Amino acid sequence: MKIIEVTTPQLAREFVVFPVHLYRNEPAWIRPLDNDVESVFDAEKNKAFRHGQCIRWIMKNDAGETIGRVAAFVNEKIVHKGNDQPTGGMGFFECIHDRTAAFMLFDQCKAWLQSKGMEAMDGPVNFGSRDRWWGLLIEGFDREPNYQCNYNFPYYKDFFEAYGFQVYFYQFTYARSIQGPLSPRLQEKADIARRDPDYDFRYLRKDEMDKLPEYLMTVYNKAWANRSENPEITMAQAKMLVKQMKPIMDPKLLYFGFYKGEPVSFFLSLPEINQIFKYVNGKLDWLGKLKFIWHTFRRTNKKAFGILFGVVPEHQGKGLDGAMIINARDVLQPEQRYEQYEMNWIGDFNPKMILVVEQVGADVSKRHATYRKLFDETRPFKRAPILK
Question: In what helix (H) or strand (E) does residue 90 lie, and over which residues does it extend?
């Protein structure tokens, strides 16, 4: 077996298409968009290159057939943040069912990260935003992956754990039907919040869509930034995020809480776009775009998924979570536009959010694990700290 650094367009193409062959008999797998994967490794498109670096490899057998791939990253913004040791990352791991091959790929990442001064590696993670390509699927193999979420074979778990990776945290995906009752406790919370006339809860009006980046940045930076290694987002990043969401955005899935006119909470969802992308075979060429338009027009997608939920600290414990959810229920259930709802990326280090989704009546449908490998295994291993 031979590991080859991806340095040419041909090798980059092989890196992208290898999973197509690997998962050809897996009915739940949905091919990611080629451009989405390629953009992670494009310095012109991925802003993580401004404060980091990455490398990727493919593995070939003696017959010249590709049997694995992997990438490694150093993101200077989070190397030391919340870590007892400088920590890099590895991801985009795919491999045939061969432990020797898998360990060779892991070793390649470890050696490169050590050469950059790292003393540990997290994986499988993304070179960039944590809401994409993050964590190893360990439960829920019968369910289709949501957009830019990892799907992998069950045997990958054995590879990671046998190599010495330990669970740093779990990420849960919760699911429920749009129809059906919610917990009475959510209604109680909503009633408490609504008694204060300074609060207003609603989905975003079309005439204020241009304010969405500002609202998004304000609430995110107060509710999530600097917690669990999440950096602040800039206005430029918020505008880019909104621009990316705009083609599929449904205003009736974007709920905010306002206090005296200022945004203080959000409950943001999108139509689950993989339910359309599964028909385009990874390509948004002219044919893929026609398929996208047709399925969007026909509303064949019946699933929505949550992308962000948060309340700024000074307004927590005042019922805002319940008020936003009840507001969403009062809109979405009568319309019957969507049938299923999934809430992505809820860390086991966030008990408050877990309580909220359990009150919504959702159950865990998928579980991902973000692993950490300490290069010095004599050092004590620590799980991700619980958010207070």
Answer: strand 87-95
- Please name the residue that has the structure tokens 């609430």: 219
pLDDT tens for 249-273 read 899 999 999 999 999 999 999 999 9
Side-chain-facing half-sphere of 342: CA atoms under 13 Å: 22
Number of H helices, E strands in the chain: 11, 13
Question: How far is Cα 140 from Cα 144, in angstroms, rounded to an integer?
Answer: 8
DSSP 220-252: HHHHTTTSTTPPP--HHHHHHHHHHHGGG--GG
pTM of structure: 0.87
Q: What are residue 262's DSSP bridge partners?
A: 259
> What separation in angstroms does the CA of 276 have from each of 31, 34, 147, 338, 350?
11, 15, 10, 14, 31
- What distance in Å separates the CA atoms of residue 309 and residue 17, rounded to the nearest whole number? 34
Q: Residue type at 383? A: R
In Å, how far are 113, 192, 366 from 99, measured between CA atoms?
Answer: 21, 55, 25
Structure tokens at 337: 């536009």
**SS3 state at 300:** coil
Strands 363-374 and 2-5: unpaired
Q: Which residues contact 131 (CB under 8 A, 6 or more apart)?
A: 148, 307, 344, 345
Distance CA 13, CA 7 (A): 11
Whether the ω angle into residue 86 lies within 30 degrees of 0, i.e. cis, is no
Cα(125)–Cα(91) distance, integer angstroms:
5
DSSP 3-14: EEE--SHHHHHH
Give exposure, 293-308, as e/b (b: 16+ Cβ within 10 Å): eebeeeeebebbbbbb
Interval 331-356: pLDDT, tens:
999 999 999 999 888 999 999 889 88
